[in-house]
């Protein structure tokens, strides 16, 4: 395992934050020392400068030694060696580093005392050895706390990275789920219309190109603006409207103040696809889809929230199973919302009447 001396770039936290943490800990122990001085009522004055220097230098030394500490963390995470060898090397490294820290700290402490009173302790004196042994144990405990903190930070980063990869994988799966059957149906419709309705065939090709451009442009994006998501949905629905022609009316009620709000990529698309499946395909005529996007105060979230709502007619005589909210698409929406917002969202889908289905997503506003 290679040690990266003085390499601060690969640390799980910035060097600035490490320094600030060391100073905060130093202030805590300086105040603790002062409190101890008051409680015990020592008959000599408390030296703020001397005590502050000793404590601050001890913890700032850990800042200097941080790359070595993180090398021990990486050694512990290394799976290329046996467990016994890894534990042995890790323990040895911790002991050596703790002793090294204490030697540096005690010698600087002795030098500060020398500047203060003109007396330099012998390094191999009886008291010095005792201080070194006791101090090394204290440094060892401090080292273990720092290592545990780094392990927790690494675990958190790995968890967040895995969550992002999982969301990206689900998004890609969603795209793959959309594209094959949708593209096949659309291309089949275009091929059927070329000879009998050239104008509409050209219109469908143009909309299809816009739809695919949207998919490619935002392929790696996990959050997109409402305006971009809406553009994708409009292209999708325009294609379906050309296919089904007079069988459906599509209306949009979009508030201008929602267009720059960010939402998870393609979070609304499964609801739109459900509306097509249940609101257009079974309908002989007079089908309707209404898309509403607005900002509104949400009592559940106790804040202004973004409302994404889609309403579609439903043919009660249709043999297609009702969208009761337990389908794969709706379950995936709930899972993705959970990943992005934890519990800070509301997702409902229900029949407002026997022939009118409503699905609504309520999420915090992110601009």
Give a structural overview.
The chain has helices spanning 15-40, 48-64, 66-77, 83-117, 126-193, 198-217, 226-244, 269-279, 328-341; strands spanning 223-225, 248-254, 262-264, 287-298, 303-313, 346-353, 356-364. It is an alpha+beta fold. The chain has two domains: 15-159, no CATH class; 194-364, Histidine kinase-like ATPase, C-terminal domain (Heat Shock Protein 90), CATH 3.30.565. The strands form two sheets. Strands 2-4-5-7-6 form a five-stranded mixed beta sheet, with helices on one face. Strands 1-3 form a two-stranded antiparallel ribbon. The longest helix is centred in the middle third of the chain and has 68 residues, at 126-193. The model is unreliable at 1-5 (pLDDT under 50).
Task: Give the secondary structure arrangement, pairings included.
Elements: H1 15-40, H2 48-64, H3 66-77, H4 83-117, H5 126-193, H6 198-217, E1 223-225, H7 226-244, E2 248-254, E3 262-264, H8 269-279, E4 287-298, E5 303-313, H9 328-341, E6 346-353, E7 356-364
Parallel strand pairs: 2-4
Antiparallel strand pairs: 1-3, 4-5, 5-7, 6-7
Helix pairs in contact: 1-2, 2-4, 3-4, 3-5, 4-5, 5-6, 6-7
């Amino acid at each position: 395992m290679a040690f990266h001396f003085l390499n601060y770039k690969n640390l799980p936290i910035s060097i600035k934050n490490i320094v600030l943490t060391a100073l905060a800990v130093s202030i805590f122990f300086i105040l603790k020392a002062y409190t101890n001085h008051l409680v015990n009522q020592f008959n000599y004055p408390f030296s703020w400068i001397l005590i502050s220097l000793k404590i601050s230098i001890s913890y700032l030394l850990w800042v200097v030694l941080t790359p070595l500490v993180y090398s021990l963390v990486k050694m512990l995470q290394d799976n290329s060696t046996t467990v016994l060898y890894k534990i042995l090397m890790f323990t040895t490294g911790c002991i050596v580093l703790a002793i090294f820290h204490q030697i540096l700290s005690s010698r600087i402490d002795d030098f500060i005392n020398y500047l203060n009173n003109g007396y330099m302790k012998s390094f191999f004196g009886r008291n010095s050895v005792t201080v070194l042994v006791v101090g090394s144990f204290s440094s060892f405990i401090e080292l273990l706390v720092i290592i545990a903190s780094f392990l927790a930070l690494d675990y958190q980063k790995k968890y967040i990275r895995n969550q992002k990869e999982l969301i990206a994988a689900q998004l890609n799966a969603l795209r793959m789920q959309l594209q094959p059957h949708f593209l096949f149906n659309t291309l089949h419709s275009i091929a059927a219309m070329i000879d009998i309705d050239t104008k509409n065939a050209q219109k469908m090709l143009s909309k299809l190109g816009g739809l695919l451009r949207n998919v490619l442009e935002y392929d790696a994006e996990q959050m997109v603006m409402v305006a971009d998501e809406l553009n994708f949905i409009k292209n999708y629905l325009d294609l379906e409207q050309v296919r089904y022609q007079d069988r459906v009316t599509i209306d949009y009620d979009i508030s201008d103040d929602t267009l720059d709000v960010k939402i998870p990529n393609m979070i609304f698309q499964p609801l739109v696809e459900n509306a097509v499946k249940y609101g257009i395909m079974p309908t002989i005529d007079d089908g309707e889809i209404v898309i509403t996007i607005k900002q509104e105060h949400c009592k559940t979230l106790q804040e202004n929230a973004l409302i994404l709502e889609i309403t579609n007619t439903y043919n009660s005589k249709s043999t297609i199973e009702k969208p009761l909210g337990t389908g794969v698409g709706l379950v995936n929406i709930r899972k993705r919302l959970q990943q992005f917002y934890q519990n800070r969202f509301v997702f409902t889908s229900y029949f407002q009447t026997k022939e009118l289905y409503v699905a609504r997503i309520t999420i915090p506003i992110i601009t």
